[in-house]
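Run: sequence + iron/sulfur cluster -> complex structure.
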Amino acid sequence: MKIRLIDPAYEHPYISHSQKVIKNIWFAHLTLTTLAALTPPDIEVKITDENVEPIDFKEDVDLVGVTGMVMHAPRAYQIAQKFRQRGVPVVMGGPHASSLPHEAKEHVDAVVIGEAENLWEGLIKDFKNGCLKPFYKADGFCSMKKLPFPRLDLLCKDEYMTINCVQTTRGCPHQCDFCHVTHFFGKTYRCRPVDEVIEEVKRLEGDFLVFIDDNIAGNRRYAKELFTRLKPLKKKWASQASMTLTRDPELLKLAAESGCVSLFIGVESLSEENLKDVNKAFNQVHQIEEAMKAVHDYDIMVVAGLIFGLDHDDEGVFERTLRFCERNRIELPSFFLLTPLPGTPLFERMESEGRLLHKDWAQYNGATVVFKPRLMTEETLQRGFNWACKEAYSWGSIFKRVFHPQQRFFTRVLSNVAYRRIAQRTPEGYLPSLSRILQRMNDTIPLQNTRDLIQQVGVKIAEKKLLIGQKAADTLQLYSVYNERLKILFVRLEGSIDREGARELVKRLKGALHVEIQKVILDFKDVRAFSSEAIVLLSRKGLLQTEEGKLWKAVNPPGING
Ligand code: B12
Ligand code: SF4
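>> structure
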């Protein structure tokens, strides 16, 4: 019996990678090599990764297995159709088929839902006996002990940057709303026995490998043991981890000592509200810069995953995020557009809010807007994203991020050059017209004179037992968000306002006036102290008026709710 396992290619004018790029940055995932290893030895099994070699649709095979993420689904269905037309049965599994098994079943003969470890052999038996079932659903999660080593020998090894991929854990202890991992694995985090991982690593040729885990440090005790055991092997490795890894200096040190050279870290957003919205508040915004520095201190490169299009992202997000990457010398900024993947809580929310633009899965690729963003139009989000992708890999930005006296200088430059090739194919974008204004609006205003500040009094004291005897904050922080759909600029003020601060605020607000802005709402709720001169000035300029219908509208101005 002959089985052909297929990984569909993704055909897209600028997202698909050329052979050259695949060779520079791509590593083979472990899906089909794992499945091949689970196949009984009396069966001839072969793999085609369509990204690197064409499929032979005329091949003499008995059964075809297709995998695929959401974006690959339409191509997977085409492939299935071609084989089925010839009478060759097709089985589909993987992230997409597991999320939407009934949709998949319309295109294939059998669907595997979830992990294949406990199902594949039985499925093959059923096939041999002519009683293939329509669905095979994993009943719980498989044991991580004694997993067969993936059949890396079946890959065209020279077509990838590396085929040295190893998985040490499955799942993730977190549950971010946009992520497919917890949906697929439930809230489990399973670790393979360290001995088995070490054995697998020892068998790899060459000195570089990728741990394809979703979060290699999800269990710190396990990770510490693994890294300690890796040290003597003197390999170099790359992987993915959540930011929580950076909070354990011992773990980070061990990672570096065991050969870690690069980590993909899901930073996702620089907005606390965004992170809270998607259940990722464990990424603490005020700690991000420190976290990046901690990783760099060990000469580990950072590939930072950053998402655009979250509900609190306005037109300023693109420039703000790119400047953050430059300031923190992020080696490889990796921007994604928020993508509601079927099966995730994000998908359910977007669908119930009627915000999905369509269900053309091929467009669910992380680089195409497929939903209605909250604070901007689809077009602004798409163009801003394109701008950020291109701009991040302009020579100017590469220079700012990469030219500093740390190790691995050439690796940093070469990987940026490879990413630049991809970025250059992105269609033209533009920086939204209000971006500069929004950057400037949010700069902190330092206080000049704290002597005559009057603490806010009244209801606040009674309600919050705040302020009496407290020192006033010595800065004024502005949090400005523009809603392109409503054409309103919201400015939340926090800290203290003296006369100079009020002047600067007036200047900035006047400077911010733009044809696009039809109203500015100023929220004074979090202002702890004003000087009387500041109140006079703000009032004279009309910034404390609370009436509707005016260009400026104050919410919680001093002396009313304060
Ligand atoms: C390595 C990896 C990558 C590599 C892939 C390199 C490559 N050559 O493709 C990189 C980093 C480049 C990558 C990129 C992307 N990835 Co990725 N990636 C992974 C990761 C971490 C591991 C994949 C792996 O090897 N798993 C190990 C194998 C053993 O598990 P498995 O694939 O699930 O297979 C098992 C079962 O599903 C089942 N099975 C699977 N297929 C089939 C087929 C048959 C016939 C049968 C019977 C069974 C079966 O059996 C296997 C054994 O149990 C997964 C997360 C994960 N834990 O799987 C994400 C993941 C697959 N990626 C994901 C995404 C979204 C992407 C991107 C689209 C991100 C983006 N926005 O750009 C891109 C797309 C790239 C592309 N063009 O294909 C999502 C997919 C979600 C979805 N529902 O589509 C995942 C699940 C991660 C996540 N956070 O949600 N990725
Ligand atoms: S930390 Fe990463 S892998 Fe874990 S649930 Fe969140 S996005 Fe997914």
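>> summary
The pocket of iron/sulfur cluster (ligand 2) is lined by residues 172, 174-176, 179, 181-182, 214-215, 242, 266 (CB under 6 Å). The chain is about 35% helix and 20% strand.
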